[in-house]
Design the sequence.
């Protein structure tokens, strides 16, 4: 598990760095504030629209990008500027903007996530709209990078099995009898 990644903070730092870069270069939106939340909570509060992607390999967690309505509107306007979208397809394009942003950012993080050249698998993004929260299962741990922009807040949530983390959300090393061979 994440032998070279080291800890939750490294995963969060990669996500934060790639997100800030993507928003600035692709949407012209600056991140004006950011902080990590690693409280052991029972529910992750979700915003208006969230894209959830499973990340395999040594990361082994779900990552959800959760956007406020105002942020979704700003991203949609900026990323579809100059494209004529029929009224009956605008909802589908809004959904595509949210899921594609998460997909591209996590894809950009895979080189940071790969350990010893291993492959990092990704699930297709799943869109959750107007879902209020994600309940913590018995063995799960949550971590969040909360970001602020001029267009409202958004969060990057990380959900992993409890046995992957110590009490400070640092990755626990998994003993592998085959690793020594």
Sequence:
């Amino acid at each position: 598990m994440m032998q070279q990644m080291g800890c939750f903070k490294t995963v969060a730092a990669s996500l934060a760095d790639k997100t800030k870069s993507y928003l600035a270069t692709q949407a012209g939106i600056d991140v004006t504030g950011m902080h990590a939340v690693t409280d052991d909570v029972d529910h992750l509060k979700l915003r208006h629209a969230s894209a959830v992607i499973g990340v395999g390999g040594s990361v082994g967690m779900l990552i959800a990008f959760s956007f406020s309505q105002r942020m979704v509107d700003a991203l949609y306007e900026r990323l579809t500027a100059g494209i004529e979208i029929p009224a009956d397809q605008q909802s589908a394009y809004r959904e595509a903007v949210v899921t594609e942003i998460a997909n591209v950012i996590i894809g950009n993080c895979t080189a940071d996530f790969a350990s010893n050249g291993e492959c990092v698998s990704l699930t297709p993004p799943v869109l959750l709209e107007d879902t209020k929260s994600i309940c913590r299962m018995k063995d799960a741990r949550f971590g969040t990078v909360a970001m602020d922009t001029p267009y409202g807040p958004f969060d990057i949530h990380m959900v992993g099995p409890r046995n992957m983390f110590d009490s400070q959300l640092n990755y626990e090393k998994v003993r592998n009898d085959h690793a020594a061979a």
